[in-house]
Write a structure and sequence with these properties.
This protein is of the alpha+beta class. The chain folds into two domains: about 50 residues, no CATH class; about 130 residues, Immunoglobulin-like, CATH 2.60.40. It has six helices and eight strands. Strands 3, 4, 5, 7 and 8 form a five-stranded antiparallel β-sheet that branches. A three-stranded antiparallel β-sheet has the order 1-2-6. A hairpin with a 5-residue loop joins strand 7 and strand 8. The longest helix is centred in the first third of the chain and has 21 residues. The protein starts with 18 loop residues before the first helix and ends with a strand.
């Protein structure tokens, strides 16, 4: 009793449909390619738009205004003062957490966290040239109001000499905040 013997008035028994009719060809079971491609393109555009809208926004901008180093006698080390300017570009107050300075030279890369502002006077007393190239110290915990900017100097040390410091390939300041993503400033 196959489906070939059915008369037009006789109902089809769905439980006994031959497998060759059920899975006859992909044409009968797959949707057309064009609507699927259009739907995938639409989903990709929506995902890209959402990624653009909710992307990470920088919380601050900044610049390295000056960098100056002095050799520490009898050591292969320099003390460097780096003047920074940081501007808050958000609508909320941001709080400085840490300032890290990275020096890239032909001999390698060196990194150091900024010295405490309370130590600056001691460094300036020992190395007066640093004071000539510094402004007020930039302290951790500094609060920067929305739209405001702060400028200040930090002191770091690197295991190199002044000649290599002055011939550096790059100087990078990584500014960390308590309540926002860090930023990098390169000179």
């Amino acid at each position: 009793m196959g489906s070939d013997n059915l008369t037009p008035n006789e109902p089809v028994d769905a439980g006994h449909v031959p497998i060759t009719e059920e899975f006859d060809s992909p044409k009968h079971t797959m949707p057309d390619a064009l609507p699927v491609a259009i739907a995938l393109l639409f989903v990709a555009i929506v995902v890209a738009g959402l990624a653009w809208i909710f992307r990470a926004q920088p919380v601050a901008t900044g610049s390295i205004d000056e960098a100056y180093a002095v050799d520490i006698p009898d050591q292969s080390t320099v003390l460097a003062t780096v003047q920074l300017t940081i501007k808050n570009v958000t609508k909320k107050t941001i709080n400085l957490s840490n300032i890290n300075i990275t020096l890239r030279t032909d001999q390698g890369e060196y990194s150091d966290d900024a010295a405490s502002v309370t130590d600056l006077a001691r460094y300036f007393q020992a190395y007066p040239e640093l004071k000539e190239h510094s402004i007020e110290g930039l302290a951790r915990e500094t609060k920067i109001a929305p739209g405001a900017q702060v400028s200040g100097s930090v002191i770091v040390s690197f295991p190199t000499n002044k000649v290599k410091f002055d011939a550096r390939r790059a100087l990078i300041a990584t500014i960390s905040f308590y309540n926002a993503n860090p930023i990098e400033i390169q000179r």
